[in-house]
Design goal:
By secondary structure, the chain is α/β, with parallel strands linked by helices. It contains 14 helices and eight strands. It starts with a strand and ends in a 12-residue tail after the last helix.
């Protein structure tokens, strides 16, 4: 295999793990972050002590705070928070050539509209091939070599093959999909339902309730995705139901933990303060509520959560107030 020059933009836990995976395949990897002190520490110790203190990054990764260091990259993976995605895309634009493959591994939407991260890349890099990396990927588990899978989605087979070749390991399997919009939507929308499942957890609801929220949430996700032009069958894969299950069930999920605090009786502001980090589902909830109303798509869990979180409607200790009044049909998209 030819050794490639790969850059990962974002020095958090997910970005660090992706850089690590790329390095295991013999590639030279630049791990870019804004924090120069953290970059120097990583280069000196080979460890990202802030996010993954038990992972030895090895010698093939060079941490940097200089964006110009990405200019010779064959593949660049964007892995920064969604709120910073546009700024970083613009910052990097002077150092990316048209032949570089670009992949977004960021799950979320812009706060003012339903712009997914790939749409931002398309704005700045209209001539580059673009892909989406998304799935049930908890960085800490991957760092510990737990068997995990993800999806690379792109209209371009050559990009999908490149990512599979350069990031796959015996414990990290990558599957391909040609519906990038659906894959990216799955990664963004599932955070809403992780909040709902967290609330159910905080209310000590049973496993039956959690299963119902996940399943009805999957129906809502598919409903909106289909209306916006994605393939509903995409949501049956790792980037849909796989990511939904992992995020909804995992106590490692900030969205789930936020919901649990709400279920336990904390206010929205108190729960935010306890989490202390970005809760992607909150922003996504607001954006999805606006677009579902505009398109007339039924999303009762979205409607109920929006009332509780943004309108101050009391939860009153009842999970019924989260589920809302759903349509009767069990399985959609059956003729």
């Amino acid at each position: 295999m030819n050794r490639k020059n790969i850059s990962v933009l974002g020095g958090g836990s997910w970005g660090t793990v992706l850089a690590y995976l790329a390095s295991l395949n013999g590639n030279q990897v630049n791990l870019w972050m804004r924090d120069n002190d953290l970059a120097e520490t990583i280069n000196n110790t080979r460890i990202n002590k802030r996010y993954l203190p038990n992972l030895d990054l090895g010698k093939n990764i060079t941490a940097t705070s200089q964006i110009e260091d990405i200019k010779e990259s064959d593949l660049i993976i964007f892995c920064v928070p969604s709120d910073a995605f546009r700024d970083v895309s613009l910052l990097a634009s002077s150092f990316i050539n048209e032949n570089t493959f670009l992949v977004t591994a960021t799950k979320g939407v812009e706060k003012d509209d339903f712009s997914l991260m790939s749409k931002i890349l398309e704005e700045y890099y209209s001539k580059n091939l673009i892909g989406i990396l998304s799935g049930p990927n908890l960085a800490e588990e991957i760092a510990n070599h737990h068997l995990s899978g993800t999806v690379i989605a792109s209209k371009h087979k050559i990009l999908r093959d490149e990512v599979i070749q350069n990031l796959s390991t015996d414990f990290f399997r990558i599957y391909e999909n040609d519906d990038p919009y659906g894959v990216e939507m799955g990664g963004a929308l599932k955070n809403i339902y992780a909040i709902a499942c967290g609330i159910a957890d905080g209310l000590n609801s049973g496993e039956n309730t959690i299963g119902m929220i996940m399943t009805r949430g999957l129906g809502e996700m598919s409903r909106l995705a289909t209306d916006l032009g994605a393939n509903p069958q995409t949501f049956l894969g790792l980037a849909g139901v796989g990511d939904l299950i992992t995020t909804c069930a995992s106590p490692l999920s900030r969205n789930h933990q936020f919901g649990k605090y709400i279920g336990e009786g904390l206010s929205v502001e108190e729960a935010k303060k306890k989490i202390g980090q970005t809760i992607e589902g909150l922003k996504t909830l607001k954006v999805v509520k606006n677009i579902s109303d505009k398109h007339g798509v039924e999303m009762p869990i979205v409607d109920s959560l929006y009332k509780i979180i943004y309108k101050g409607t009391y939860l009153d200790g009842s999970i019924q107030n989260v589920l809302g009044q759903d349509m009767i049909k069990d399985v959609e998209f059956i003729k």
